[in-house]
Design goal:
The protein is α/β, with parallel strands linked by helices. Helix content is about 45%, strand content about 10%. It has helices spanning about 5-20, 25-35, 45-55, 60-70, 80-85, 100-105, 110-120, 135-140, 150-160, 185-195, 225-240, 265-275, 285-295, 295-300, 320-330, 355-360, 370-380; strands at about 170-175, 180, 205-210, 215-220, 245-250, 255, 305-310, 335-340, 365. Helix 16 links the parallel strand 8 (about 335-340) and strand 9 (about 365). The chain starts with a helix and ends in a 15-residue tail after the last helix.
Length: about 400
């Protein structure tokens, strides 16, 4: 096999993965070409394994890579087949299979570009109609239904978002121009420096401090898209020096606070995807909470801490352990708020055993499935200092 046309195909394949949302750069294409010189190009499995080692950085990226590799390197008409992924299919009256929006949209880019070029040659017509902006429309979209381009746009919106967390008065006092506590010593010192005339009063006011916030984030397969969006919010909070601790759990518990302090959110989350072995895997909520209560609760839940539990609650194992650990977590935390993506369904009712085990121990359950719902969570947290109860649906 000649190397020159094969090298061009490798470059196009890397561009395809980049369009599908993977963090690709020209350096990845160079590294892939250098590595492929050392393997037999006639052995398909060796080529796949070599490219996967260099281009896949997280567990949830492997499915996209495999689908792109099988279609790109097998059929000359792969581009047409991948565009066909955008079309609805009906098989025997069953709902169509779940498609990969990121891969399908990346491979439909050329078709969209050619259509745009054709439209440029036509005369433009002015139309006045009432429409929603793309950003406003994107804020209502479910995280699990976003395409690759929409997801990139959403990440920029999340980075610019700042959650106005509440502040609460502490017992410590600081010097202030006005306040509720008169500072007699400071006032007397000022009078002595002024020649004995007591003309100015000095005051002390209570120090305002944001209570600590602890986030327990489910990264199982059913929560993968929502977990990534919440992690971008957590990164923005940590960069603004908020008192935030982030823990990830699937089948085990991982402290992600240090990794999220990286300035680039894409690098931080890619590093977490490589370090966390149970990303997009199974879930054991009860066991993860037991480890958190045993190792971390006393250290991070001091000072009227608020706990945000982000999970769908779909756990069917050891429900008695889950109930006991939720009861213990409730005693440690000042407030316990459950962010549940399942609230995106209007007819949601708590029927699953895991949901029923969690619900009696939380102060409120709020939605967390799109940008608007996360903004609503921020607004609810901003009023905690006023001792107002959190909103959201509650069931008996």
């Amino acid at each position: 096999m000649t190397m020159e046309p094969f090298a061009r195909n490798v470059v196009h394949f890397v561009r395809l993965l980049r369009g599908a949302g993977l963090g690709m750069s020209p350096a990845h294409a160079v590294d892939a070409l250098d590595a492929l010189r050392l393997v037999d190009l006639n052995r398909r499995d060796d080529v796949r394994a070599t490219l996967a080692c260099l281009l896949v950085h997280a567990n949830d990226e492997r499915d996209i890579f495999d689908a792109a590799f099988d279609l790109f390197w097998r059929d000359p008409d792969s581009e047409g087949k991948l565009r066909a992924l955008l079309l609805p299919k009906v098989r025997g009256g069953l709902p169509p299979p779940k498609r990969n929006n990121r891969l399908a949209d990346a491979l439909a880019t050329r078709a969209a570009a050619s259509k745009a070029q054709a439209s440029e040659s036509k005369p433009e017509e002015a139309h006045a109609r009432i429409t929603f902006s793309s950003q406003e429309r994107l804020s209502h979209r479910d995280f699990d239904t976003l395409s690759a381009d929409e997801w990139r746009t959403l990440r920029h919106q999340i980075r610019a978002h700042r959650m106005p967390l509440a502040t609460e008065p502490t017992r410590r006092l600081k010097a202030a121009s006005r306040g509720t506590h008169a500072d007699l010593k400071a006032s007397a010192r000022h009078a002595v420096r002024s020649g004995g005339d007591w003309t100015v009063w000095k005051y002390r006011a209570a120090v305002e401090r944001r209570p600590p916030l602890v986030l327990l984030l489910d990264i199982s397969g059913s929560m993968s898209a929502y977990s990534r969006a919440v992690l971008y919010f957590c990164h923005a909070l940590l960069q603004s020096r908020e008192r935030l601790q982030v823990f990830l759990f699937g089948t085990r518990l991982t402290n992600a606070t240090r990794a999220l302090r990286e300035r680039d959110p894409d690098v931080a989350i890619a590093t977490l995807g490589a370090q966390v072995a149970d990303w997009s895997g199974g879930t054991r909520i009860g066991a993860a909470l037991a480890e958190f209560n045993r190792r971390w609760a006393r250290r991070v839940l001091a000072g009227r801490a608020t706990v945000l539990l982000v999970t769908d609650g779909l756990d069917h194992e050891a429900i008695d352990v889950l109930d006991a650990e939720m009861q213990r977590l409730r005693r440690f935390a000042h407030r316990l708020v459950w962010l549940n993506p399942l609230l995106r369904f209007a007819d949601f009712t708590p029927r699953a055993r895991g949901v029923r085990a969690i619900l009696p121990h939380v102060d409120a359950m709020l939605a967390a499935h799109n940008l608007d719902s996360l903004g609503a969570v921020g607004r609810e947290l901003a009023v905690l200092s006023q001792h107002k109860p959190l909103g959201g649906p509650r069931w008996n």
